[in-house]
Specification:
Distance between the termini of chain A: 25 Å
CATH topology of the largest domain in chain B: Alpha-Beta Plaits
Order of helices and strands of chain A: HHHHHHHHHHHHHHHHH
Number of helices of chain A: 17
Oligomer: heterodimer
Shape of chain B: globular
Order of helices and strands of chain B: HHHHHEEHEEHEEHEEEHHEHE
Strand order of the largest sheet of chain B: 10-2-11
Structural class of chain A: mainly alpha
Structural class of chain B: alpha/beta
Helix content of chain B: 25-40%
CATH superfamily of chain A: Formate dehydrogenase/DMSO reductase domain
CATH class of chain A: Mainly Alpha
Strand content of chain A: under 5%
Strand content of chain B: 5-15%
Number of domains of chain A: 1
Largest sheet of chain B: 3 strands, mixed
Distance between the termini of chain B: 101 Å
Radius of gyration of chain A: 22 Å
Largest interface: A-B, 51 and 52 residues
Chain lengths: 414, 343
């Protein structure tokens, strides 16, 4: 693609992304209001000492403390990295296994990855005490091979760029009713697939090699992250596809896409549940490191933070429910059934991979002291605002993509 | 047409392969030539130990700059205090005296020094005077609730001697059946925090002190997550040091007043020890439980106690190799009761 074509595609994306009916504008406006309020609370309240040189405010307004230095932001960071990573599943189905149904909608996997990665980066920035310094220093990678955060920065920004390129290329070709060229797709998949797994692996590597945090100190962490990512990411995309089919006239998704994706998410859920089972056995059956056991007891039995253990049991209950429902043919063969299974899967993985994967390693803390953590309204508002930005970008990028798909596929079933 | 293009392409691929093979053989054949062209880099420099180290000049310049800024800030505060208490008041004079005395040093590490500290668990009475002196000495902001030294109280006997049963919030000490374990930065030889920091804002100095560059810290708190001793503390709110209690003897990598959203930690009173002094906690300890010195100096007190009593470290399984040792001295304070079984 030439520069001119890229510019034209960007113009097309902006034009189509901002065009729509009253309901669409209502959605955008609602998200915008939440986003603006979230950014306001971040700039003007939580980070007021940095941006406004105020004597008031600061991260002291969050629930975090020296005992629990990472909280809500990093928890959802982990979740959305998983969602971003799983976007690659659709590219694999489309371009490696050459499934026509997946080929049609693969670009939406890239949309989801871009939106999720923007949420990821914003959550990190919101959590960072000195974001301006970080923006200057992080790209220089001063401690690159040693600090896992440097690796994370590289793979996440790299994966964001790759997905943006894939998105612009696909939309640019489809909107002119041209098919994708293998000369683009082969290198794209070869580069994107390992980095997709890489972003979530590195995210786990940030925490799993720390002797200070016994709860994370297991080689099962990275596989577990990747396993449940392949449940939550595709399940979220299924919900988006179902929504798109309902709201965009003439847009149809091949039924086989739903069927195959449910197979993948169910398989991933089973693996994830199995990993949880294995970890619980390691810690609780005989004797093990007392710290690790104490941290797991906080998670399982709700010592110090009952809601944390509620989230954990939500993961088990909804995860098992989603697997059972997906095994029943009459449920998984209807659109409503697929939607329900996908919804259960997403909520189950939020239960597994947000606060439950971050907080227990801080409760009890490294000196054995229990200092419970509860997110404060400031944190919650900023987190919601960031998610609103993410969904805004999702909507604005998905709309032109669907339009371009329909141009290329002429609205036929595929 | 298409036939000739295919031939062309084949030829081009053949040429490409040839060039590629030549490149490989060049590397294979004239490796020594290549080596002389490329500058050798020690692997440890790329992967391992030497962190970002300020040169002495840049650090000294930074200290000067910081001193100016601190003086600006504190003379503003002095005016406020003098207005509040009156020009002739004791507070006004005190604040002015402290503010004028502010000196930010950048004393570099002395060659061949390896600092270490040891603590006699038998002697410690858990009075927490060290924690208090540390706050005063190091200009720790009083409003952020930070204490570099935490004192754990744990049962002396039984199965419950571990962190999980230790208490930080005890209110009276010493108790007969309790043991007191002060914990602060261990100045590890293999510090996980230095490894974790994505921007090299923290590093280990040649004399073994692990320091933080407050001007460089991005506040990501990864080092706090990586530290097995809970030794790192974050300025969650805007620190408000009091000029009336300001310690004017400062070091740029130590007790200069901190900013909001940066990490801080014990520096073994770098502003004292680099000039030959001892840390404030050692000086203040009423029972003399703490020993500080240079491991490389055979005459130093630290060498004596380590050789005489043997050393223990906290969490050896963490693989951090602490330079903060614990030992069991000859006598227990307070003395155990008659026939208490204490040797």
């Amino acid at each position: 693609m030439s520069v001119g074509e890229v510019v034209e595609t960007v113009k097309y994306v902006v034009r189509e992304g901002l065009r729509g009916g009253r309901a669409y504008y209502g959605l955008l406006l609602g998200l915008l209001v939440m986003a603006v309020y979230g950014v306001y609370v971040w700039v003007g309240v939580q980070h007021a000492p940095i941006f406004l040189r105020s004597e008031q405010g600061g991260l002291v307004l969050t629930g975090m403390s020296d005992s629990v230095p990472w909280g809500l932001y990093i928890s959802f960071f982990v979740f959305w990295v998983g969602v971003a990573a799983a976007g690659i599943m659709f590219a694999l189905g489309a371009y490696v296994f050459n499934h026509p149904g997946f080929r049609k909608i693969a670009v939406l996997g890239e949309v989801q990855a871009v939106a999720a990665l923007i949420v990821v980066l914003l959550l990190i920035i919101a959590d960072m005490g000195r974001p301006l310094r970080a923006m200057v220093l992080m790209p220089l990678l001063p401690n690159f091979p040693r600090s896992m955060l440097g690796w994370d920065f590289v793979v996440i920004t790299g994966y964001l760029v790759i997905n943006l390129v894939g998105y612009l290329y696909t939309v640019g070709r489809y909107r002119e009713d041209r098919s994708l060229s293998a000369r683009f797709l082969v290198p794209f998949v070869i580069v994107a697939a390992p980095i997709a797994i890489g972003i979530h692996t590195v995210t786990a590597f940030i925490s799993q090699a720390l002797t200070a945090r016994p709860y994370w100190n297991t080689a099962l962490l990275a596989p577990r992250y990747v396993a449940t990512a392949f449940a939550s990411g595709p399940a979220l995309l299924l919900l988006v596809l179902l929504l798109a089919e309902r709201s965009v006239k003439g847009f149809r998704v091949d039924w086989d896409v739903y069927r195959k994706t449910i197979f993948v998410t169910t398989g991933a859920l089973i693996v994830g549940l199995y990993f949880t089972f294995s970890e619980v056995q390691e810690l609780l059956w005989y004797t093990t490191e007392p710290f690790k056991k104490a941290q797991l007891e906080v998670l399982l039995l709700g010592r110090a933070a009952a809601w944390l253990s509620l989230l954990f049991w939500l993961w088990i209950a909804l995860g098992v429910a989603a697997v059972i429902l997906a095994l029943i043919p009459s449920v998984r063969s209807t659109r409503g059934g697929v939607a329900f299974i996908a919804l259960l899967t997403v909520i189950a993985v939020i239960g597994e991979k947000t606060l439950t994967i971050v907080l227990p390693s801080y409760i009890p803390d490294s000196l054995g002291q229990i200092r419970p953590y509860t997110p404060t309204p400031v944190e919650i508002v900023v987190t919601i605002g960031i998610h609103a930005i993410g969904f805004l970008i999702y909507a604005i990028l998905a709309k032109p993509a669907i339009r371009a798909i329909m141009t290329h596929y002429k609205g036929a079933s595929h | 047409m298409s036939g000739s293009r295919r031939v062309d392409e084949k030829r081009r691929n053949l040429l490409k392969a040839g060039v590629f093979a030549a490149g490989i053989s060049f590397i294979g054949v004239s490796r020594s030539t290549l080596m002389s062209m490329l500058k050798p880099v020690s692997l440890s420099e790329v992967l391992g130990v030497p962190p970002r180290r300020e040169t002495e000049e840049t650090l000294a310049r930074k200290a000067e700059w910081k001193e100016e800024r601190i003086k600006e800030w504190c003379s503003r505060k002095v005016e406020e205090i003098c207005r509040e208490y009156g020009e002739g008041s004791e507070e006004c004079a005190e604040a002015r005296r402290r503010c004028e005395a502010v000196k930010v040093k950048a004393t570099p590490a002395r060659q061949g020094v390896a600092f270490a500290m040891a603590l006699d668990v038998n002697k410690c009475i858990g009075c927490r005077r060290c924690a208090y002196a540390c706050v005063m000495e190091n200009n720790v902001a009083r409003n952020n609730g930070i204490e570099w030294i935490k004192v754990l109280e744990a049962p002396r006997e039984g199965e419950a001697i571990d962190f999980l049963h230790a208490k930080l919030d005890y209110t009276d000490a010493p108790k007969e059946d309790m043991v007191y374990v002060p914990v602060a930065c261990m100045h590890c030889e293999n510090p996980p925090c230095v490894m974790a920091c994505p921007v090299r804002a923290t590093w280990r100095e040649p004399d073994g002190i692990v320091v933080v560059d407050y001007e460089r810290c991005i506040g990501c708190r990864y080092c706090m997550t990586a530290c097995p001793y809970g030794a790192r503390h974050f300025n969650w709110g805007v620190p408000e040091p009091s000029v009336l209690e300001l310690n004017p003897n400062m070091h740029i990598l130590g007790n200069v007043p901190r900013q909001v959203h940066v990490v801080e930690k014990c520096t073994w009173c770098i502003h004292r020890t680099r000039d030959g002094g001892i840390p404030a906690c050692v000086e203040v300890c009423p029972v003399g439980a703490r020993v500080f010195g240079d491991l490389n100096d055979p005459e130093s007190p630290i060498r004596r106690v380590l050789e005489e009593y043997g050393a223990f470290v906290l969490k050896p399984e963490a693989g951090t190799r602490p330079r903060f040792f614990y030992f069991f001295g000859p006598a227990r304070t307070p003395a155990a009761k008659e026939g208490g079984g204490e040797k």
